[in-house]
Amino acid sequence: MFNENISMQLTPAAVRNVRAGHPWVFDNAVTKQNKDGEAGCLAVMHDKNRKFVGLGLYDPHSPIRVRVLHRGKPRNLDMEWFKDRFEGAFSRRETLMGDRLTNGYRLVHGENDALPGIVLDRFGDTFTLKLDTAGWLPHLDAIIEIITETLTPERIVLRMSRNVAEHTDIPDGSVYGEPLDGPVLFLENGITFEADPVKGQKTGFFLDQRENRKYVEKLAQGKDVLNVFAYNGGFSLYAIRGGAKRAISLDISEPALEAAKRNFKLNPDIPAKNHETVCADAFDYLASDKQRYGMVVLDPPSFAQKKDDVEGAIKAYDRLIQLGAHSVKPGGILVCASCSSRVDEETFFETAFKAVKKTGRTFSEIDRTFHSKDHPIGFREGAYLKCLYLTIT
Ligand code: SAH
What we know:
This protein is α/β, with parallel strands linked by helices. It has helices at 12-19, 79-91, 94-97, 140-150, 162-165, 210-219, 234-241, 254-266, 282-288, 310-326, 345-358, and strands at 5-10, 24-26, 30-33, 42-46, 52-58, 64-71, 104-109, 118-123, 126-131, 155-160, 173-176, 184-188, 191-195, 224-228, 246-251, 275-279, 293-298, 328-338, 363-369, 386-392. The chain is globular. 45% of the residues are buried. S-adenosyl-L-homocysteine is lined by residues 206, 209, 229-231, 234-235, 251-253, 256, 281-282, 299, 301.
């Protein structure tokens, strides 16, 4: 499947990293290269003694110059090899694929499924394929062929990160099947949701919170729940199905809250009369809101997009969790999630504990959760989601 090869030499540190299983080689780790190459070439990597290290996907436009596809002994990377990689990822989701109440989940989680730069999400019969490297653009037909031969999507919608979209004329949208002109419906644990694969945040829906939403459902009985950073209301629907007296979805985005209301309409068994929406900045609202709730869910966007943001992110978590803890009734529950991969779990949990202590309230930990099976962790940077459940007294 690769027509062109580039031969390159790596720094000893990068060689160690690749051999240890890390999937990225940065631009400054390439010490020699036999020629310039196009995105999508096969990079054949050697150490300084010309010993073979591995094979990877070349991307001259990204600081992650090579995404490692194979390490160990030299081999031919053909369609069979590529298909095996996809099938491996699909087989890790067998339980989900057999779940009749859920047909929205992640089928391929990039580096963590040994398919670096490729994310494939399923929303019923519509799949979203998200490419994070321009290196896959020349191989798009091969990717589509494998997906459609193995599974039976009605359509595949392509999404690209900005650094990929800049290098192609292909627009975001359907690359297989009928074009899509709005949201699609899918099931998650028996609840119908809409997802907008073309225009929605991420690939259309935050599939990674499925298990936390179910956990919130279990804890929600009889409570009034404030769902902060609600997006399209996921936690609110689960809370009310779990017996919450009331759920308030708070988000800064009006379109997200409109989608939350539509999601309630799609599920007549989950009473919409118990649901309210508030369009506001979470920090401002929590600081001025005098009400207290039986449960507060905090699921903010990533606060640290780059390394320099980490300190600011920790401060933001500290402030948010203090505000959240204040808003919990004595004996109520605070759920705080973090999806910033640059803030590791120890730092996040410690920040959360300190923040609650600063409010003068005491707490006990109910649980902490991490990634679900369809979002496996394959390398250090692949770990991003952590969530803490606290009783606040
Ligand atoms: N909890 C959601 C996912 C949250 S994603 C779910 O279960 O699917 C983060 C959300 O935070 C987005 O919807 C975004 O619009 C919202 N957001 C970002 N900054 C915000 C702010 N300052 N105040 C309130 N909402 C904000």
